[in-house]
Predict the 3D structure of the following.
Amino acid sequence: MIDALGRNIRYLRLSVTERCNLNCLYCSPAKDDPATLLKPDEIAKCVSIMVKLGVDKVRITGGEPLVRRDLEEIIAKLTAIDGIDDLPMTTNAVGLDLRIHDLVKAGISRFNISLDTLDRQRYKEITRVDGMDSVLRAVDLGLQLGVNVKLNAVLIRGVNDMDLPGFMEYVKETPVQVRFIELMPIGSYGEDNQDKVIHPEEVLAQFPELKPIGRASGGVATVYKADGMAGSIGFISPLSHAFCHECNRIRLTADGRIRPCLGDNGESDIRPYLNDEAALHKAIYDAIYHKPTGHHFQDGFASNRDMQHIGG
Ligand code: SAM
């Protein structure tokens, strides 16, 4: 559907839980409130309306989607909706190695795996869990299954920028795209550490062999490659290269709120309308239509919710 600014909103980021099995330095888990957590049927009802309004890509995120017990039921209900062309999942992939076959069979089209370092000790320091082996096994299994796998790393100066050469070596041999994401001022760590954000230009200066090959993910990522590299490097830079004017996303939180912009605190609670199809349709339409012009990351933005509530 076209919003008030003429943007074609086609991409839903669907958070299915606020819980997580990691406790990252910059993003800590929360708890689901059973009174407000959307049930699989309720999720399907909301997503069906969004699909009627033009959404054709639904990304499952969280919290950590893998910790939601009825995840398979949610996926089954989503795959039964006619009109979803792409059903990817964003996950930290701890434990994914044991479930990837079933999830792919269930209908997950591809995986974006969050992995901020390839160093086991640093992984433990960032996530407070010794889980990196499971993540790397999941990546290998995904590649064996022929599923598209991307790795997402939030680059933070002094925390994981020393891993850049390791990531470059990794993509030389491994046909995955590693995307470096700017640390956003969401959550107290992100707000307090904006001086540690690393922009693409700094990485590109360090690795001049990287040459631009285009844009991906609806224009959100700029992608680079060096000669002979099996994979590629992408940058998602909402701070230094904002893409708000062409943003095609909306978000549905695990507790039933539409948040049309990550960097704007406006949300619409659609739970009150779950039993009234026409009212639910109108609430969703209104929320999408009035998607904000853009984020406020550069204007001293203070998010009313942390990333684990919103879904990234
Ligand atoms: N648990 C899943 C995962 O780890 O991919 C999905 C949810 S997690 C909130 C989604 C993404 O948001 C992760 O890649 C995480 O690194 C990223 N993230 C969390 N806080 C962030 C921040 N302040 N700035 C940029 N990215 C952030």
Observations:
- Residues 20, 26-27, 61-62, 64, 90-92, 114, 152, 154, 181, 183-184, 186-187, 190, 307-308, 311-312 surround S-adenosylmethionine (CB under 6 Å).
- The mean pLDDT is 96.
- The chain is about 30% helix and 20% strand.
- The longest strand covers residues 148-155.
